[in-house]
Amino acid sequence: MTTIRVLVESDLRATVGLGEQELDAIEAVYPLISAGVGSMPPIMRIDVPESNGEIDIKSAYLPGHSGIAVKVSAGFFDNPARGLPSLGGLMMVFDAETGIPRSALFDNGYLTDLRTGLAGAVAARNLAREDASVAAIVGAGAQARYQLEALTLVRPIELAKIWARNRERAERYAAEMAERLGLEVVAVSSLDSAVAESDVVVTTTPSTEPLIEQSMLHPGLHVTAVGSDAEMKQEIAVDALARADRFVCDSIAQSSRLGELRAVLASGLDMSVVELGQVITGEEPGRVSDDDITVCDLTGTGAQDTAIASLAVERCDLSGAGITIET
Question: Hey, is 238 helix, strand or coil?
Fold first, then answer.
């Protein structure tokens, strides 16, 4: 007889969020990825072209973590027009010692949104200028919200400029986030100007054509790209990546297949790239001077899912959240 804890989104929102402990838990996985510690298989993706959707399966075993998460994540990008979120899914957590199922997490994509937002903050903490105070957020969906809020954990953001193809959505986002964060948040019509006037740029779209061009970059800028996680997606032009003083990936293997590095390799361009874990440990330099241009490509890893899900399950076990079933 085994006991499985069943958790729903409300349980998880009450348990984990955009906090310092969660931020540190996500940051800690990157050195493990770079060191090749544990086991993280390639992402499995199921495309649903008729519905502009995809289902991704990610997982990882990480030494030192009590659980192994297997995440099934759905991204259906026409959903906002139906009044539905674009991301959804669930996670299963297995005991790392016995392999026995410990928990089923019906999070509706919350943990994915959370760990991706925290990953953006990790990238900024290690690569953006310490005095970065102006941010440009590209996109106005759920992840755009998490990215801006998480960014405020690590940098003194005072002004955020929001650009999206849908101006009405950008304006709604600006009003909502200004009230939530107590910052000046404005919707803008020019992406070029937004990037030119910002210290940090975060791209959060499913774009299949580059949005950030070489001409937009300027000394001191940091760009975090979180949208490209499939072979057809691309948010940053290859020549923009080539201009960067430091190009960093969460996982070179994943970025080569699904992220911004894929387009670089397809172009035949030979450029230096390091992993975020190497920057965190000091094995490789990140930002060397305030004038450096840095770019970080975050494709999203199963290691992040295991880290955030394990933390959530441990806290829920302690608090007694959710319901338990005997099997």
Answer: helix
